[in-house]
Amino acid sequence: MRTALALIAAVVLVVACGAEGHDIVGTFTLTDDNIARSGSTCAGTGGYSDVRDGLGVTVKDNAGKIIATSQLASDNKASALGECQLTFVAQVPDSDFYSIEVGHRGELTYSRDELEKLNWVIGFTLGGNE
Asked: What is the pLDDT of residue 78?
């Protein structure tokens, strides 16, 4: 009986902890002539060769602590001619501010209020054809 109660308590704790926080859903769109396509994926070339499936995404809180990581994945259904759209999802705990960096392309910072107004969906655009 104690084992069953302990197991139930552990499940409740995991569910309760998992209920806090949010998923940040992001798109990263490369708009440039330096784009390669292969099957269902796209990637940057030349000076944008780092922009591809698997490129790391880092999310930091207002103290600068890394609170989540993710990776880009191609979204060819959403990519148009002359652009390559990649997506990511990062599950983050509650914080007052979030700094998000794709690869080493610079951080963008959002307040919690801003992200709530955006329904936790953000977009980045990079390239010469903006």
From this structure: 59
